[in-house]
Queue: 2 jobs
Job 1
Amino acid sequence: MGGGDELTVLVNALRRDRRRDPRAGRREYSQAALELADRCERLLADGGASVVVPVLRKAVDRMTTALMYMDDSSGIVGTDLRHMMGLYARACAEAPPDPERLARWLAALSFDGPGWPEIRLAEFAPALGTRGLSELSVEVERCSAAAEPGSWGRLVASRDLREQLAEVSGDVDRHVAVLAEHLTSARQFHRIVVALRDAGRTAEAIDWGRRGLAEHGGEPQADRLRDLLVDLEIDAGDLAAAVALRRDDFERRPTVTAYRALLDTGRRCAADTGLAEWATTVLRTRVARQPAFADELLAVLLADGKADQAWEVGLRHFDVLFEGRLVQLLELRRRTHPGDVLAPYRKLIETRVLVTAGKRSYQAAVSLLRDLRAAHLAIGDAVGFSAYIGQLRTEHRRRPTFIAHLDAAGL
């Protein structure tokens, strides 16, 4: 079989009957895509870009359609499609098709497609050239103007392609201006800061970063922007500003993650003196108002090796701590003060673990009981543990599955 015939067979395997069970044949489909991609990569390496360009274009189209009728909850075929799209862009760069037709295909895929695959315009820019990018700009404006009011998919497509066109233009001011049209999240500010930083315009990047945190500092996405701004402030020599960013963030949300970031920045700026004590005081004050933050205080104290203080906090706020944190605390205390953990272990088992029935709860209880037994044995109180197990067996005699778990564990 000739090379062309082989490629035809491979790409034909990517057809998908929409009437087929969406869950059937996913693995085989993925294997067919991988086999075609591997063959095309080898041809590209041998200088056969002109042969594989039309094949890869057909493969992308067929896989895009197939995913509309396939259950790809695992994401495997979607990953294969992204790889195929990247290969197509690479082949086009080596053997460019008509740039205007390529531009129209990209526009149609974005505006009229199902939402995949992702178009990375920077990968297609070499093949598009000036003519293709100009045509794509025209198509974007045309499709945007023709979009029905409230057409969210076309609005997103238009915004995405306009931003990517501005980016590949190399005009930083244009790129920033387009990104700034939709300052609705910290992520958008982050993209602006990155563009300015990469262009060497540090002062402007810092200004945009500060503005982004002022407007969206409470969003989860703001963490990346904050980290970037801290790096920029340090590189610019404004160490006090970098530390201030971390202090402000910790005061707003005193978590162990923010605490570690604060101390790390303090060390980088040679300004960590007193930061740990200040942060702990802030967190203790917050716990007094909002006991739910006790878990964060406990995590901070444990991270600093203040085991005794952590134990005191744990006992005071036992009922609001996460179960995993309590287990961590009890394990640490058991190693040095086994007599202290007997009552807390029992409380955890009785008031948190065994309040619900089920295999998972019983397994957790058995695990804790093993630790409790170790604590009893450490203080020479095997009799006390046996008495407690007898008490549990009596109280939960109507839970045969739990009793079976105790028997299987030798308890």
Job 2
Amino acid sequence: MADREFDLVLMGATGFTGQLVAEYLLERYGAGRDLRWALAGRNRDKLESVRKDLGADASDLPLIEADSFDRASLDAMAKRARVVLTTVGPYALYGEELVAACASNGTDYCDLSGEVPFMHRMIDAHGDAARASGARIVHCCGFDSIPSDLGVMVLQDEAMRRFGKPLERVGLRVKAAKGGLSGGTFASMLNIVESARADDDVARVVKNPYALCPPEHRKGPRQPYVNGPKFDEELDCWMAPFIMAAINTRVVHRANALREHAYGKDFRYDEAVLTGTGVGGRVKATMLSLGMGAFALGSALKPTRGLLKKLVLPRPGEGPDAEQREAGFFNIVIHGRTSDGEALRVRVRGDRDPGYGSTSKMIGESAVCLARDIDRERTPGGFWTPSTALGEALRTRLAEHAGVTFDLEDVPQG
């Protein structure tokens, strides 16, 4: 791996999110000064345009032509890189050949996939190849699902230090956020809905909270799910469904399985959005729940799904301008209790909008962390989550460079 030409290749550099990642890497690491990296995509002219738009400092960045459906070009690219970072989604449509190329060529890989059926299929289809070649494959390196996965890891590790046992019941609550989800995220969600409607096997994967766990761990205790307005006794606040919960919870359960159930075999986990206290909080939780239900119903029906795509949802490649990204943020609380009632919380904050500003920094640092910080003896080839592959090394990078922090908070006991 040390002999490879590039530390990192950014696949999808001509897309909206890909360009944001390129801007971040250039600002943080320069063009070959501190990091050997290249821009990749299927269209040479568009790659040259992106490089030009990045400015004079990017003039020496190498360009690589690679097509998501041309396996030979993907193999050639993978063999030149220690890590391939890809923003080309929906991954179910465009991602499988690249995962296969990285898994077979011993190339580390990270993406922004929040597509549970795709990840389930990749784990089963290419897990053996990744273990044999030494490739570390890490999905979900953006807002879905780093705050959840890394946040629960921080919380549970501290619980073991303080209490000598894990937190049996954990909940993630989005306290505040500004900024929307990306058009690519919505495109991925709609593609999952279409696939689940057409294939009963996909529908079963979507419904299973343990779908991303290793095959021998795909069953477990019944999991809680916030599917309507509920009251959180821990935080004394009303809450409503969180649109990313169906993705993040699966990643957290995979992390628990990969850590040999360090969170406990009876671990229960859910996610929700806080809506406030009193009558106002309850009304807001009810309205948000109804909106989520309407979106789910509209997504499930073909005519309304088409209207959502055409008239309502942002398209892949569309996103907020720089001012809007910088004005965004997120503030998340993750809380839990042991079986004996000891309590602990962690606060997760990001200084940019979740879907673009923070996500582009999170995946950039994840890729660099994978290339530079993670020992292969500790983390061999296979499919990992951000916390199980990158752990505290990523937490440090995010705090120092990406404006994403994980801070423990004391909770009165008793």
